[in-house]
Amino acid sequence: MRIILIGNYPPDRQESMERFAQMLDTGFCKAGVSAEIWRPAVIFGIGGGTMNMGVRKWLGYVDKWIIFPLVLRWRLRQKALAEPNVRFHICDHSNAPYLPHLDRHRSSITCHDVLAIRGGLGYADAYVSASRFGKLLQKWILHHLRRVERLAAVSHFTLRQLTDLGAPNTVDQSVRWHVIHNALNDEFEPMDVSECETVLHQASLVSSVPFILHVGSGLPRKNRGLLLEMVYMLGGRWSGNIYFAGEGPDKEILARIEALGLRERVRFIVKPSHSTLVALYSRCEAFIFPSYSEGFGWPVIEAQACGAPVIASNIEPMPEVSGGAALHADPSDPEAFGEALLILKNLSTRALLVQKGVDNSRRFEPSHMIQAYLNLCGLTPS
Prior knowledge:
Elements: E1 2-6, H1 15-30, E2 34-38, H2 55-75, E3 86-90, E4 107-111, H3 115-120, H4 132-145, E5 150-153, H5 156-164, H6 173-176, E6 177-179, H7 193-202, E7 211-216, H8 225-234, E8 241-246, H9 251-259, E9 266-270, H10 274-283, E10 286-289, H11 298-305, E11 310-313, H12 318-322, E12 327-329, H13 334-343, H14 347-361, H15 366-377
Parallel strand pairs: 1-2, 1-3, 3-4, 4-5, 5-6, 7-8, 7-10, 8-9, 10-11, 11-12
């Protein structure tokens, strides 16, 4: 058995999608299936990906949407790739336009979210904007998603949103479209206190002062500002710090930090190492995830696996992913998040939530996900 994984264009630096592709590649190989990743080669888009602006963006599109489809068609002329035991899986739904260049009966795709698609169609609750060309691109992607025979959505919420957009319109969803939750894409487990202190000290972070943690980008839908408003509203009832791990600050959040007088209590950890991230999860007073829109929400289960109590949005799919092992609140209500944080001062409540979170994280073992993908692709390893 053999599976070809279609990955993303390297200059786009879509780190989460690269981790997902690598996780599938490793998992299939461990299961006894020969796997490899094909990606669009960088030919014209040297020096930048399609996330950039101007000429570089369009040169990247040439690599992605003109050169790579020709390469796919040329490769598929090889006799070995025409065998029925060879399957193709597109790791990112944004690459759905590659589907017509593959054998549809031997191909599948993962839909991680429909945020950009819904944003392109004008849905304000996606919290994703789109240019005129972006709207056309998202309609093109949706057009091909509607026609795929085998699809994995990473949450029931994402699958519902996709079907609400009129997909699928040519296949039986109950047979070929499934929910396959993402798995933990690295080793996440509670780190010993002394090791945490060492790791955080090496990263020039203070572990002796309680802190709450947010992990993610600075996109508006990630709602990082809520942590600032929440801590400000708590006043003297909570005197810890705020750590943002992921992207650095933008002008707006820096201005808000100054306006609220929180400069000395906020720290940004840009692209932390894996060990630093695990230490942050393991040592934080609480992991706060007030996102307005997600397709899955990886940080929720990462935090739970490391023994952090989680306070997340009450908007789906966060409750689905947390498995009820988190406190949930309205992402537009910083006071509700603050009250949830104060609840965790009760040690028995905190311990129970942490244990439930650790138990929930076990649902997301990579082996479970890989078996589901083997079934989706119709692969039975020897």
